[in-house]
Design goal:
By secondary structure, the chain is of the alpha+beta class. Helices cover 23% and strands 37% of the residues. The strands form two sheets. It has a seven-stranded mixed beta sheet. A five-stranded mixed beta sheet has the order 1-10-7-4-5, with helices on one face. A hairpin with a 3-residue loop joins β8 and β9. The radius of gyration is 23 Å and the shape is elongated. The model has no long low-confidence stretch (mean pLDDT 91). It binds dinuclear copper ion.
Length: 182
């Protein structure tokens, strides 16, 4: 049978299913269901699929809130781009902007304290990947994702964009600091 010509037998959907075809449909179905149930499984037993809250926002509203935090709590700047390093009070709401092609600002948090981390994108889809913890969070324009996080280890972490976002995607890397509590 060729798709260029009309089928020779008109009632083709009543033909018996070939064994091989049936087997592949069964394999695909089992794999689909396995992948589907892995998501709730990893949410409960893994560390990567976090619980979150999500709210609608706009780039203007989100950058206003981020700017407010930066104005109050910047302690220094880093890199050639003069990215502010912000040390917000323990337990507070902290903000991070994803945009072509940077993370802004850099956060400096305290070990053992909980923060509400707000993430949003100013333009396209990005992804917040925290290394070496291997946390992955999609950062979506128009939405503000809120994640309650409690750093358990002091040190310097890397933030990498994990969603291809154009020619500067590979440059979209930053840091996140966790300080030992005094
Ligand atoms: Cu942002 Cu890749």
């Amino acid at each position: 049978m060729s798709s260029l010509l009309p089928p020779s037998t008109r009632i083709w959907w009543k033909q018996p299913l070939d064994r091989v075809e049936g087997t592949w449909i069964a394999i695909a179905l089992v794999w689909c269901l396995t992948m589907f149930f892995m998501m709730p499984f990893w949410h409960v037993f893994g560390k990567q699929n976090l619980s979150n809250e999500a709210y609608r926002t706009t780039p203007e509203a989100f950058s206003r809130k981020t700017q407010e935090m930066v104005d109050k709590f910047t302690v220094r700047t880093e890199t050639d781009q003069q990215i502010p390093v912000v040390r917000p009070p323990a337990g507070s709401d902290v903000y991070m902007i994803a945009r072509l092609w940077q993370w802004w600002p850099i956060l400096e948090l305290e070990k053992g304290q909980s923060y509400r981390l707000h993430l949003s994108s100013m333009d396209y889809l990005h992804s917040f990947s925290l290394q070496p913890e291997n946390l992955n969070i999609q950062v979506i324009p128009g939405y503000e994702g809120v994640y309650t996080i409690t750093p358990t280890r002091a040190g310097k972490y890397s933030v990498v964009c994990n969603e291809f976002c154009g020619i500067g995607h590979h440059m979209m890397v930053s840091n996140l600091y966790v300080l030992e509590t005094k």
